[in-house]
Amino acid sequence: MTNEIITSVQNPLVKRLHQLLSRKGREEQQRFLVEGAHLVEEALKSGAEVVTVIYDQQRDMDPACQRALANHPEAVQVIAAPETVLAKLSETKSPQGIVAEVKKTAADWAKWVDQKREEQGSLLLLFLDEIQDPGNLGTILRTAEAAAIDGVVLGSGSVDIYNGKVVRATMGALFRIPVFTQSLVDTADEWKAKGGRVLISSLEQNSVSYDEADYAGLTALVIGNEGRGVSKEMFAKADQFVHIPLYGGAESLNAAVAAGIFVYEAQRKRR
Amino acid sequence: MTNEIITSVQNPLVKRLHQLLSRKGREEQQRFLVEGAHLVEEALKSGAEVVTVIYDQQRDMDPACQRALANHPEAVQVIAAPETVLAKLSETKSPQGIVAEVKKTAADWAKWVDQKREEQGSLLLLFLDEIQDPGNLGTILRTAEAAAIDGVVLGSGSVDIYNGKVVRATMGALFRIPVFTQSLVDTADEWKAKGGRVLISSLEQNSVSYDEADYAGLTALVIGNEGRGVSKEMFAKADQFVHIPLYGGAESLNAAVAAGIFVYEAQRKRR
């Protein structure tokens, strides 16, 4: 744990980190930012590769973050900086006085599945098909962790999982639940080749009610885009269509609410 | 259906309507704004008291809105205006070209309960205790309508139900499900005096799992504030504490997701 001081928003490190506020910057550098004491602590405790922590020199660093830093196995560059620097690295109206730079992780989905399957025998996964709203995606990850879903596959074309709003809405779940970003159609093919079943959330005529579906064994549940639902390409992969009944006049449920109802029912049946 | 033209943002009507973007203005005038063709159509079709519709003179009025206006039983003041006026009455980045002024409704909760009870025999209500996030509140109303909850009581101290973000997140449910804003503690007392039961969402040690709770007959389910949960004053009114198990590492669920899991389980058991 080193301690440095930065004084200017013109500092090259600050300029580089500022680029992580855009998807392009995150893809080029393969890193992302997390803001706020709680999320920085979660990142440090999770074993994520935290590279840099910058905190507001006018405030004391949060004690929980200090402890997590002290226990972090890898060296972290710790930097004190003025409020202007923190503001430059913040997407929120009131910068929270601490921000961390974290390396993206890239695990191999197929290997992960094989290993998990050997450990547990069965698996329950969420496949997310072009979820667009950052709040929805973050909330779905938070719910998936709460329900102890084994992992999440985020289809290409979805909002970036490392978007600041997503990260904040996960409440730290991002650091604790495996998330893979890749082609959903290819993933479904691999999953089916491994004996997995694909349940697609849709109001199709031949769909069964969420409380009558079979979630046993190797099950992946597909949640669709907020506007158009699950794509036609994914429809072809369905072993079963499942829906949540709309008893009232509403045309649909919010994607995160629907995901929550599905995953809790799946776990209720599996337990 | 009258047709008028307004040309300036300085017009007194525009100035008055602009005040409806603030809670203070909505409380003084007892009216609120809804923006976008879909919501304006829903307001007109629902029987809500629509006073004024202003649309962008550069665009044609949405055909569904035109039909809804033609079928609306009361006279509505219809006004064409330039984009600048629409922008002045919009909270969104890209104004949607149509906005309606709607009168708030104020029904008597106790009378409504008595009547509904006579019609149906049983009732399932949601009590919301100081929900603060507009997106959460709107999503909860949308879910409540989908699950055919009979009505919602929004405790004093919550975000304003007529806040533009709330109205948009309801997807029109606001116009189709009864919502009462009033003291939740007093409402709970009245409800219990009528023989109603109060279920409180909480992780208290003596709480039962959401799938083992009794939702029959006259049941009100209380969902708490995003940060601190249900208030201590409401705790005193509990007939039963209920919780959603957190199987994974998450500390809590999003309030709208929790409400969705609860109300769907309640309806699953009641049906």
TrEMBL record, chains A, B:
<dbReference type="InterPro" id="IPR051259">
    <property type="entry name" value="rRNA_Methyltransferase"/>
</dbReference>
<dbReference type="InterPro" id="IPR029064">
    <property type="entry name" value="Ribosomal_eL30-like_sf"/>
</dbReference>
<dbReference type="Pfam" id="PF22435">
    <property type="entry name" value="MRM3-like_sub_bind"/>
</dbReference>
<keyword id="KW-0489">Methyltransferase</keyword>
<keyword id="KW-0808">Transferase</keyword>
<comment type="similarity">
    <text>Belongs to the class IV-like SAM-binding methyltransferase superfamily. RNA methyltransferase TrmH family.</text>
</comment>
<dbReference type="GO" id="GO:0003723">
    <property type="term" value="F:RNA binding"/>
</dbReference>
<dbReference type="GO" id="GO:0032259">
    <property type="term" value="P:methylation"/>
</dbReference>
<dbReference type="Pfam" id="PF00588">
    <property type="entry name" value="SpoU_methylase"/>
</dbReference>
<dbReference type="InterPro" id="IPR029026">
    <property type="entry name" value="tRNA_m1G_MTases_N"/>
</dbReference>
<dbReference type="InterPro" id="IPR001537">
    <property type="entry name" value="SpoU_MeTrfase"/>
</dbReference>
<feature type="domain" description="RNA 2-O ribose methyltransferase substrate binding">
    <location>
        <begin position="33"/>
        <end position="108"/>
    </location>
</feature>
<dbReference type="InterPro" id="IPR013123">
    <property type="entry name" value="SpoU_subst-bd"/>
</dbReference>
<dbReference type="GO" id="GO:0008173">
    <property type="term" value="F:RNA methyltransferase activity"/>
</dbReference>
<dbReference type="GO" id="GO:0005737">
    <property type="term" value="C:cytoplasm"/>
</dbReference>
<dbReference type="GO" id="GO:0006396">
    <property type="term" value="P:RNA processing"/>
</dbReference>
<dbReference type="InterPro" id="IPR029028">
    <property type="entry name" value="Alpha/beta_knot_MTases"/>
</dbReference>
<protein>
    <submittedName>
        <fullName>Putative RNA methyltransferase</fullName>
    </submittedName>
</protein>
<dbReference type="InterPro" id="IPR053888">
    <property type="entry name" value="MRM3-like_sub_bind"/>
</dbReference>
